[in-house]
Specification:
With 157 residues, the protein is an all-beta fold. The protein has no helices and twelve strands. Strands 1, 2, 3, 4 and 5 form a five-stranded antiparallel sheet that branches.
Length: 157
């Protein structure tokens, strides 16, 4: 293919089939044999390998195609968040979750989504220690996303 239109990585799955990252369109196209990085949100520390990357692109007529690429940990240069930079507890919880973050994350937005992907809570991290109340939420599994790339699963019992 001489030219690909709107290439991007919509999802990366880990060995359990969980969605662990996503990307966005970085350039509208790529010509010939050029190399191009396609940024994705950072993988969390609890990713299991191998991971599978879904790469979507189109031809000159904008006809889409998909390619799945699988990598083990030794084939990647994966930059992971250090555990002491972002922790939460207790997990599982019955009501509140305490977030302990490094100063680098102060002022960054967070969202909490339910198992269907519906946002149920959002805000901005204002302190190194932040308490999130899940009291009004039903029991279930939630995904906390912070700073655009950190993901942590929270279980409310």
């Amino acid at each position: 293919m001489d030219f690909i239109n709107y290439p991007y990585i919509p999802v990366i799955w880990d060995c359990d089939g969980d969605s662990v990252s996503s990307g966005q369109v970085f350039f509208f196209g790529q010509i010939g044999q050029t190399t191009q990085g396609y940024p994705v949100s950072e993988l969390s520390a609890d990713v299991c390998f191998p991971i599978t990357v879904q790469f979507v692109f189109g031809n000159l007529d904008f006809e889409p195609d998909t390619c799945l690429l699988t990598f083990d940990a030794s084939a990647l240069s994966v930059q992971l968040i250090k555990e002491n930079e972002f922790t939460l507890f207790p997990n599982p919880t019955v009501g509140e979750v305490q977030l302990n973050i490094s100063e680098d994350f102060i002022g960054t937005p967070y969202t909490l989504s339910d198992a269907t992907g519906r946002e149920v809570l959002s805000g901005t991290l204002r302190d190194k220690n932040t308490t999130l109340s899940l009291d009004s939420l039903p029991a279930g599994v939630y995904m906390l996303r912070c700073a655009g790339h950190i993901r942590r699963r929270i279980v409310k019992e």
